Amino acid sequence: MESSNTIYGRTNNPYDSRRGVGGSSGGEGAIIAAAGSVIGIGSDIGGSIRIPSVFNGVFGLKPTQNMVPCDRYIPEQMTEGGLRRELAVTGPLCRYAEDLPLMLKALAPEAYKDMKVNFNATNLLTH
């Protein structure tokens, strides 16, 4: 899986230019892996946060649907009837797992900021 655009062409994996970066949020994953950005935001319907995270060696989280608002980020007219928009979520990508809770707290609306979520499991992850 690769990521490309008409202006800059194919996005290269920062660790091996022969490898892809993993789909639509692949550029975000690549720039984070290359230490060009500390954090990033991606959208995910079928793996667009998760796959670039794996391909680039960073951490990504696909949150529960509607936890992070998609307004002004994912267009309402994505497909007829908005079916794909209903499946899409917005979530964080970070270089370090311990940054995910902070990003999620910043992205989540007021209703979710007081939620008690145990992120201690991230302490078990090593990069």
UniProtKB/TrEMBL annotation:
UniProt-listed InterPro entries: Amidase_CS, Amidase_dom, AS_sf, FAAH2
The record's annotation in PANTHER family points to: FATTY-ACID AMIDE HYDROLASE, FATTY-ACID AMIDE HYDROLASE 2
Q: Name one GO cellular component term.
A: endomembrane system
Q: Where is the composition biased (Polar residues)?
A: 1-15
Residues covered by the Amidase domain:
2-114
* Region of interest (Disordered), ranges: 1-21
Stated name of the protein: Amidase domain-containing protein
Source organism (scientific name): Steinernema carpocapsae (Entomopathogenic nematode)
